[in-house]
Amino acid sequence: MEELAQVVVDVPTMQTNQPYTYAIPAEFRERLTPGMRVVVPFGKGSRVIQGFVVGFINQSDYEGELKAITSIVDLYPVLNDELLDLSAWLAQLSFAFRISVLQTMLPNVMRAKYTKYVRVIDEIDEDVLFSIFHGQDEIEFDEAQMEPATVSKLLDLRKHNQVEVSYQVGNRARVKTTLGIQPLLEFEAYEEERAGLTKTAAKQSTLISYLQTLKPTDVIAKKTVSEVTGLSDAIITTGEKKGWLAKVPMETYRDPMKDYDIQATTPLELQATQAEALAAINAADGTAKTFLLEGVTGSGKTEVYLQAIANVLAEGKTALMLVPEISLTPQMMRRVRGRFGAAVAVLHSGLSDGERFDEWRRIERGEARVVVGARSAVFAPLENIGLIIMDEEHETTYKQDENPRYHARDVAAWRSAYHNAPLVLGSATPSLESRARAEKGVYELLLMPNRINNHPMPTVQVVDMRQEIINGPESNFSTDLLAAIQDRISKGEQSVLMLNRRGFSSFVMCRDCGFVLECPNCDIGLTLHMDTKSMKCHYCGHEEAIPHQCPNCQSNAIRYYGTGTQKVEQELQELIPGAKIVRMDADTTRKKGAHDKMLTAFGNHEYDILLGTQMIAKGLDFPDVTLVGVLNADTSLGLPDFHAAERTFQLLTQVSGRAGRADKLGEVFVQTFNPEHYAIKLAQMHDYERFFRTEMQMRHAAKYPPYYFTIKIQASHAEEREAALKMSQVGRWLKNQLGTDAIMLGPTPRSIARINNRYYYQIVLKYRQPEELDAALSELLERAQSEAKHGLQLSIDREPLSFM
DNA sequence: AGCACGCCGACT
DNA sequence: GTCGGCGTGCTC
Q1: pLDDT tens digits, residue range A484-503?
Q2: How far is CA A790 from the centre of its chain?
Q3: How far is A73 from A83, CA to CA, in rounded Å?
Q4: Residue A294 has pLDDT above 90, yes or no
Q5: Quaternary state and partners of this protein (predicted)?
Q6: Most buried pick, A67, A247, A439, A639, via CB within 10 A?
Q7: Closest nucleotide to A68 by C1' from CA
C-alpha cells in the first residue's frame, strides 16, 4: 500500500477548490509532510504549478492515473496542522477558495511566480531563430510583452512540434545573508601561527587572539569582528589567506525596527480596575474564554495587555496581539519591544516583503514568541499560544474587504478555542455584536471606567453649524472653535483638528448648471488633488486636468466644492495667519516614515495644530494637546449604512480621547448640522452604555445585527443588462431557498453602480439561521461558476461592513 | 488558469 | 473539402 499526498493546487477556481491526489516518489517519502509546498504537474499539458500538501491518504478513488509530485519546495512545512485545519474552516466560512486562504496565511514572497518558456526543439527558419530567439534556443514566453504576431508565430511553431513550451515555478523568497567568519584552527595551532609572525605584525596577532576565543562551530558576522577587535577587512582577508579562518555566508534577518531606539521598559503599577482585569485574564489561563475589556481611552488597557502577555510568556507559552494597522505606530512598537525585547515580532503593511518574510520566519522558528500585528498577523505561525489580544476590537480594518473576506476576530476566536487560550477583545467603544455577547454572558465583561489617576474626561461642546451659517459667512470653522484654537496658541498649547472624510470628498461643480465632473469609468465624482493639480478617481485612479470651463454649459463658474484637508488648511492659515499647521492625510503620509516624522515634529512642538483625517483619531498620545476639534461630524452620520451611528459614536469618542491626557484639562469641539442626533449627544456625554442600549433598539426594530446575520451578494459584469439580469435570477432562486424569517433586500444597483467599467448589483440578506443559508450560498457560488466564463463575477460577503 | 475537444462559418 | 473561431469541460 502506497501513501498518497493530498494537494491543494494553486488554481483559484470553484472547480479546483478541492485537494488532488498525487503519488509521492520514493525519494521524497521520508521528507514530505503536510504543510509543505510542492510543485506538481497539473492539467492536460502537465504544466507545473505550486500546491500545498494538506494530508496523506492510502488509497484514492480517482479513476485516472495519478501523477507524481515533481519536487518539494520547502525543507520544513510552512504551515502546521493548526493552520491547515484553520484554512479549511475559514475557506468555508468566508466562501473563499482554500488556496486563497492558504496564500493569505503566508508572506507575499512565498506565493509562487510562474514563468513560461519556449524552447526550440527542431530545425527552424534562421530568420525566425534570430528575430524571435535572438540566436538562443530558449526564451521567456511572455505573451503580454510580445508582439501579437510573434505570439501567433510561436503558437504555430508549437503546433508543428518545432518548439515546446515549458513552465517554471519560481520562489521569490530570498534569505538575506551577510559575510561571517569561522575559526579553522585549534588553540595550539593558532599559537604556532602566532610564533611564525614578525614582531611588527601586531594586528595579525590581535586577530589570532580573537580567533582563539571562539569555538570551532562559531560563525561571527564580519561586521561584529571588526567592531569588537577594531581590525580592518584587510587583516581578516589576510587571516583567510593564511588559512586561519573561513569566510562563510550567514543568514540574517531584515529587522524592521533596526533604526528604532528601543528603551527597556518595566511593568507599570496597576490601578485597581486594571489589576482586577489582569487577574481575571490570568485566572483564565488554559481556557478558551473570551473577555470583552471595555475601558475608556486612557484607562490603561495596553498595560493590562502587556502584563497578561508577560504572564503567559513566563509559562513558556506564546502570545498574539492584534492591533489596527493605524495603531502600529513607532511609539506602540517601542513600548512592546521595550518590554519583551527580541522576543517580539511585528507584522504590518509598512514592512518590505523581505522584512515581512524574515519576521515570519522568526515566528515560525520559535525565536519570536510575541507577535504584534495588524489583521493578517492573526495567521502568525505561533505554536502553543497562551493568549490572544485584539485591541480596538470594533475597528473595521479587522475585516478584509477582498477575498478571502474574513474577519480577524473570527479567526482569533477559532485559534483561541484550538489552543485553549483566552481571547481578550479590548475597546473603549465595543462593537455592538461583542457588547451584546457580553450581555448574554458569552463573553465576560471587564470594565475599566476610569482614566489613569482619575483624569477627568474632556468636556465636549457640540457646535450647531446651522446657527453658524445663519450668523456669518460659510466657513469650516465656527466662531467658538476658532476662538478656542487661538486661545491655545496664545497659551503655547496644541490643538488637533479632524476632518471626517468618510464617504466625502471635494469635487468640482459648475455653479451655473450644476454639472459635476465625473470619472468616465466609475460614475462617481472626481476628487480634486491640489498636490498633483489634477482630478483623480478614488476608485480606478483615472486622472485628468482641472477644468476651467464647464464642459456642459461653458460657464467659467466651475469650481471645487466640498472640503478636503488641503482646502481646510488654507482656510485656517488665512484665519490664523501665524499658526504653524501640520497636515496629515493619505497624501502627505504616503511616503514611508512620513507619518512618524510628522508626529514626532508635532510632539516636539514644532507645530501648533495637527490637522488630519480619521487617521489622527487613533492612539496618538500628546500631553500638550488640550483642544480637539471635529470639523464635520455629520459626514459619517449620513452614510446609507446601518453602521453610521455606531461609526460616528466610535469616532467622536476616540477623537475626544486625544484631548488632555496629562494634567491639563482637555476640551473638545464637535461641529455638526445634527446636534440632536443620539450618536453625537451620547458621545458628548461619554455615555457608551446609553448609546449601546439606544442603538440596540434601533437594530432590533430594523432587524439588523446583532439581532440578524447579514450577507451581501454582489454581481458585476461589463454589461449593465447582464449584471441586472443575473442578479434578478439569483434573487428569484434565493427566495426559494430562504426560510420565512429571512429578509432579502434588492437586487439593487450599488450606490456606485459602475467601477472600472463594470456594473455592480447587490442583494443583502438578513437572516437568523446561518446553517441553512450557508448551504444555499455555497450552491449559488458553484452555479455561478459556469457564468464566470461569460464575464460575470459573483462574490459573497459575510457580515459586510459596508452596504454601499 | 490553461489546455483540449468539439462543433459551425470563410477560405488556402 | 479544411482551417480556425471560441463555447464547454476537466485538471489528481
Answers
A1: 999 999 988 889 998 876 54
A2: 32
A3: 18
A4: yes
A5: Component of the replication restart primosome.
A6: A639
A7: C12
Asked whether residue A793, judged by its CB, lies under 7 Å from any atom of the DNA or RNA strand B, the reply is no
The distance (Å) linking the CA of A755 with the C1' of C8 is 30
In CATH, what class is A272-451? alpha beta
Annotated ligand binding at A369? The verdict is no
Q: What is the sign of the dihedral through the CA atoms of A347, A602, A608 and A530? A: negative
Does the annotation place A522 within a ligand binding site? yes
Is residue A308 within 8 A of residue A277, CB to CB? The reply is no
Residue type, A631: L
- Helix axes of A644-656 and A688-702: crossing angle, nearest 10 degrees: 170
The structure's pTM equals 0.88
- Is A550 annotated in a binding site? The answer is yes
Nearest DNA or RNA nucleotide to A4 (CA to C1')? C12
Cα dist. A610→A293, A344, A495, A614 in Å? 30, 31, 6, 12
Covered bases, chain B (protein CB within 7 Å): 1-4
**CB-to-strand C under 7 Å, chain A 37-56:** 41-44, 46
DSSP A158-169: HHTTSEEEEEEE
A47 touches strand B (CB under 7 A): yes
Supply A30's cell numbers: 521520508
Which residues in chain A, range 261-290, keep a C-beta under 7 Å from any nucleic strand C atom?
Answer: none
A20 touches strand C (CB under 7 A): yes
Q: Which CATH architecture does the domain made up of A459-502+566-689 adopt? A: 3-Layer(aba) Sandwich (3.40)
Whether A785 sits with its Cβ under 7 A from any strand C atom: the answer reads: no
Angle at A379 between CA A90 and CA A268, to 5 degrees: 130
pLDDT 10s digits, A173-198: 788 888 888 888 888 888 888 888 88
CATH number of A709-798: 3.30.70.600
Handedness of CA A504, A506, A512, A513 (dihedral sign): negative
List Cα–Cα distances, A778 to A88, A96, A771, in angstroms.
14, 10, 11
- Domain-wise residue ranges, chain A: 3-106, 115-168, 177-251, 272-451, 459-502+566-689, 506-561, 709-798
C-alpha–C-alpha distance, residues A541 and A532, integer Å: 13
Strand B closer than 7 Å to the CB of A791?
Answer: no
